[in-house]
Amino acid sequence: MRKYVPRILLWLFVINLGIAFGAGLYESRVVIPRWENIPPQTWPNTGLEFWVYVTTVPLTLLTLANLVAAWLERGPRRYWWLAAVAIIVVERSATFSYFIPTMIRLMGAEGLSQAEVKATLSQWLLLDYGRHLLTLAGWLAALKTFSLPSKHDG
After folding, report:
1. Nearest to 151 by CA among 46, 7, 54, 33
2. pLDDT category, 75, cuts 50, 70, 90?
3. In a 10 Å sphere around its CB, with 0-12 CB exposed, 13-18 middle and 19+ buried, how is residue 101 labelled?
4. pTM for the whole thing?
5. Which of these, 99, 85, 119, 111, lies nearest to 27 by C-alpha position?
6. Mean pLDDT over the full length of the chain
């Protein structure tokens, strides 16, 4: 059973990254643009309604678990796996240091003018494309890991 744990972790990582990538694109192209002309206090809290269950907790924990599994891997897939994890560590760091705090600040900002809200939301959306690229790159690197033999294959 122990030899299957790394494989299961990698599968869960890939599946979660695919969901995060698709949902992130949908949110930035469909959901958030609708918020531009309405007060931030009326925005749905997608962070608590969706993201906390998809990425904030699960992807963060899967990233850490995959870091351990990739580090322990001695086969040819190790470097692609470590690269995937490293990319997602950067994405998670950006999420926790900029994206979450900025959205919380916007949603609770009663003192901001509509122009300030629009400018901050516009910047958030622009930077979000970089986050999508990181998620895509990490996802592709994790998928590449599957194409390589494991130390347990054989």
Report:
1. 7
2. confident
3. exposed
4. 0.92
5. 99
6. 92
- Asked if 89 and 142 touch (Cβ cutoff 8 Å), the reply is no
- Kindly give, in sequence order, each residue whose CB lies less than 8 Å from that of residue 58, ignoring residues fewer than 6 positions away: 16
Q: Over the chain, what HEC string results?
A: CHHHHHHHHHHHHHHHHHHHHHHHHHHHHHHHHHHCCCCHHHCCCHHHHHHHHHHHCHHHHHHHHHHHHHHHCCCCCHHHHHHHHHHHHHHHHHHHHHHHHHHHHHHCCCCCCHHHHHHHHHHHHHHHHHHHHHHHHHHHHHHHHHCCCCCCCC
pLDDT at position 1 over 70 = no
- C-alpha span between 54 and 57 (Å, rounded): 7
Q: What phi and psi values does residue 111 have, to the nearest 5 degrees? A: -90, -5
| Percent of the chain surpassing pLDDT 90 | 73
Q: Write out pLDDT tens, residues 79-108.
A: 999 999 999 999 999 999 999 999 999 988
Q: Mean pLDDT across the stretch 41-51?
A: 91
Crossing angle for the helix pair 100-107 and 114-146, to the nearest 10 degrees: 150
